[in-house]
Amino acid sequence: MKKCPENISLWKEGIKRTMICQQRTTDPNAPVAKMNRRPRSTELLLRASIVVCLALLLIANVCRGQDSLVDAAADVSQEYLNYTINHEGDADRGKKLFNDPKKTLCSSCHLLTGMEKSGPNLDGIADKYPSEQLARQVLYPSEFIAHGFEQINILTTDGKLFAGRMERSNQIEVKLVDAQGKINGIKRKQIEAIKEVPTSFMPADLYRTITKEEFADLMAYLKTLKFALQDGYADDGRKIAIVPLKKSVSVEPIHPPELNFENPVWCGALPGTSSDLLVIEHMTRRIWRLIRNDG
Question: What is the pLDDT of residue 29?
């Protein structure tokens, strides 16, 4: 079967219809054959569908590759954790690592005392957490983000992106502390969007810059960071020793787990009630009444 010349010219003119050509044959009784020519829009749609399918296959392969990388990173982190549990490091070498910006970024985001940077101060960190949990927080930082140190991203109306820990928020402006400790003030009228990010500022790939032996040294140093306050004064001015409790103090939640407050910064009793509390959320600027039924 071949196309008739008149049909070719009609197709070039963009006429989208079914064309009939007579099949060349020596049989005079041969049936007439119909040739359905797809419109160009249909062909383009078909090609686009093929491209989309190929793109989805490529994305699926990339995702599988990323999953493999995540699994490999988890295995390395677990190896570092196991090594630290079974080997005692050197605290002096660990202190040098802590303050070495080429090997770690610890001192860039953390101080021991004073004005906090993007991460919490570490004074007394060894008193707060057992050794293994402390190591887990360093290796898996996004699983242990402390309240008030969530990463906030702000997009301004002129297209600038700011990221950091929220230092202050009011009706006029929002202040973010970035990873270097710099405070950026953004006027609320300039904010296009604001979003809390579920990942930590703290890098989760410390194994790329230090060995597991060095990680054990770093953890040995962190375990020396106990509260420096060892004594105080009585009411009459006498100097007295502050003796650590033999039994650790536990903190119990005052609300059920299904009530998740967004970055709460203050909680206090509601006057006129026996057990109700007020909870203030920082970023949302909302005040919740927490009704507790103790009975």
Answer: 53
